[in-house]
Amino acid sequence: MAGTKHRQSLKIFRKDFLSDYFQATWFVAPPLLIGLAGGILATYFVTNNKYLVLLAGIAGLFLLLMPILPLYLDVISELFKKYKGRYFEVLTDQARQAYEEIKNMNVSNEEGQKELLDLIDRLSNKKTDGEEHKDGEPTNDDDVDDQNEEK
After folding, report:
1. 143 pLDDT more than 60
2. Would you state the pLDDT for residue 119?
3. Long-range contacts, 76-81 (Cβ 8 Å, 24+)
């Protein structure tokens, strides 16, 4: 159920996310292609062993990727910060909908209902207590500690 909710939540803002993702990470493709082609061409004329040629192409790809990797990871973390609030908001709404569906099914297990209520309350409190600044930084110390523990 969690995987389904995850995919559904990504579908809601998929267009915006993919647009930002490709605009922010286009700079990775040219060095990858140049490194792969350079490695292949460098060994193609030296040997006819196709595995060695492919291995050299992959090595060239990694050689040109390594200087760019820290910048790429920084861009990805900024995208995560940008869409994190929206993602959790959608997940919270979907959890509420799932709770309402289960509640309407007249679940007789009171303990299960209490767990669901606690889950909804925790999700709601996380959203309201840890409201973020526009730059994506949390406003209270508990959320800062939570983020540090996640790392």
Report:
1. no
2. 75
3. 76/25, 78/24, 78/136, 79/17, 79/20, 79/21, 79/24, 81/135, 81/136
